[in-house]
Amino acid sequence: MSSPTSNSLLILLFNANGLKNHQNELQVVLQEKRIDIALISETHFTKYSHIPITGYNLLKTNHPDNTAHGGAAIYIKASLVYQTLPNFCQPNLQSCAILMHLNNVPTTISAIYSPPRHNMNFQNYTDYFSTLSHNFIIGGDYNAKHNSWGCRTNNPRGNILHHFITQKGFKVLAPPGPTYWPTSLRKKPDILDIFVSNTPSNIYYTTSNLLEPSSDHSAVLLTVSAAPPIRPCPPKLFHATTDKQKFHDLVNQNINLKIRLKTTQEIDDAINKFTNIIQTAAWDASTTHRQHTNHSPSIPEYIRILIANKRRARALYQRHRLPSLKRNFNNLANSLKKILSSHKNQAQANYLANLSSKDGSLWLATKKSLQHQAPNTPLINPSGGLASSDADKAELLKNHLAKIFTPHSDIQIPHHTALVNRFLDSPIPPSIPLKYFTPSDIKNAIQNYSLKKSPGYDLITAEVAKCLPKRAIVLLTVLINASLRLAYFPQLWKFSIIIVFPKPKKPPDILSSYRPISLLPFLAKIFERLILKRILPYIFTSNIIPNTQFGFRASHSTTHQLHRLVDAISFSLEKKKYCSCVFLDVSQAFDRVWHEGLLFKLKAFLPPTYFLLIKSYLTDRHFQVKFGSSFSSIEKISAGVPQGGILSPILYNVYAADQPTSPTTSVAEFADDKAIISIHEDSHIASLNLQNHLNLMSIWYDKWRVQVNQSKSIHTTFTLRLPPCPEVSLSNIPIPSSQSVKYLGLTFDRRLTWGPHIRTKKLALNERLRSIKSLISNKHTKLNTKLLIYKSLIKPMWTYGLQLWGNAKVTNVNKIQTVQNKILRLITNAPPYVSNHTLHTDLNIKSVHAEAVTYYKRFHNRLPHHPNPLISNLASHTIPGNPTRRLKRNWCRDLLNE
Prior knowledge:
This is Putative RNA-directed DNA polymerase. The protein is an alpha+beta fold and 898 residues long. Helix content is 39%, strand content 16%.
């Protein structure tokens, strides 16, 4: 049998008549025959069905009524390069398809099923085949018989299909023997499973019948004389076979410290040469890295013998059609099914029993369970059409991101823009020479860098950099100091590769449903980290960032900011006042930062050299999108702080630092999440104060070319009184009002009962539990491993913000407690007579309320000495303002008394 890396493409065609009953047999056949693509008819799948097979990707089309009948599916080797095509789903025909290049010719390969109870006419076939490319191979159960492809008789469908195929000039590839074996002896076997193709004449085929998997249909093997395209392994500098000492020596031999670095071009040339030295040394120090495509476990010998016996029994029955032979075949088929199921269960048990956090296998298993698997569907092109190939998708996403990485063209105040440009064009005063970096500075920055970060386009990682010799560190220091002297950020360090990840629960065919992640060169990040360390003292000395901004600041967390908001709401509820809040949604805050505006603010306080260095860092940046194994063309970035950059968070904070404030309102900020709070006993005055602040914000947004999405912003009134505050607007556009709002991960309801938040959290916990239930509810995984999974993946979901909502009404808190009780029972498989208290005691797990007490006391003890007065003010034992306790409810500070 041809191997998957040979010059033949192996396609299996199988009518499963319900794949769930044959999944283990199918997996064995795919592994043993080394099948590249399996076309499955009559899957009986619904939208909830998913039968994964190791090493293969699954594409499926269910019957349109979403019940367990009909349907088609494709299993394709994950190592092959292909494109997913749109599904065809009608009651009379279901099909799913991929596009693959065979001998450099784009060819559609499709699985099809056409139920016999529906009539098919010439137009039905025309409608379906018109969706295909010029070259195709379509395999499935057409339920069509005709003598021309070896059937015993003709039926109406066969006549229509034969007429259609003859007129179009297509070819039918049929197996030499029958594929349908009816149970009744009065019915004769015949050929129902065929291929229809239209391919170049230089591609040849052979078909053969297979005796497995078991079904009332025989599988068909199609061998195509075309090499399947193999997906290349992601390039890496270091492999398991890399000799790191040899790499160290090779780099050391090729480093030349006597170089001229007087111009920016010389710096770029030197960095390019330095990068090439590292890459070449890594490749020379590595042996050939072979790609292993077969990840399936081997089949034991006793199962192979049983498979061979069952194969012989089926061949005998199909040859003689005797009832005794049929019984023998059925007995062997049932025995094989049970043994395969037992073997699979035992393999799963061994896998679960060996899960460990020490070797990383546990986290790989949980990642696989929790990872969002988005279908590889074509992307909708806003200008029309679909993008199916990786190259087309990469180009489409590049164009989409290029529009985002530009300043808002519709937001601009001409006289303010002119003022900014005049200030930037004004002469820069001379500055004293800056202190250069030392090799120890560079080495410490490299040694403290995480090994888990992905590399940029140059493939240099922290692991590679940590193996560099001293001469390389010295050369890197010289390069960085030359860049500092010329106030120039090297061009090669400003290029990013952007990969995209689908957002969960978003339509996968929409461009905005993908989250971009920028991969920057490692050495660029080292330089950024050194620059950040130098400019932070200037930012803190000048008090640029306001105390209300808690984002991207050391010792500042979302919980601190949320506590301030909870205190403001608690105060207003106790004092019978209105707490009118607006939560603003800034559109693409980081990606749309106006470069000239940011430089205007930086020039006001940074030394000239650092200002020019940051200016060089921001300007003339470029990016390229990677989708699958394809890259887009290169595009320029005209706005925004570099995503993934070390300097980007602090630069954004500087840009947003001078937002206006008001004496009648307070502000809570975490990066681009902004809340404005207005408290008053009169609802109209509370809204008036809030509106005055919003009017100031509107002016600021227009000056600095920031766009707020009013439709996604929310206005909420926190009060126990009936009439809400009047609505407010931003730039004359009303902000929608809501009874509750989600801010920094917590859901606030108008009465601050925490009921909506806890209900939302309970749903999220149950969803997470369903994802990893197989890992914690079985008897094979070790108890300590199960507890570690719970503490690492489930418990942090409900303990976030527990300091604030943990003292809510007992009936609300108990909703989370019941989830914890259920999980502990799943972990231990405890019988009903074992109490929840006993489970918590034996497993050393605290109750939700006890955890809330512990969390808040530990959190509160750290507040008094905090450098930010807004946080140190939270250290009081009463609500700030010390309002009279009017309400019969518990606040978070009451946890200190337990």
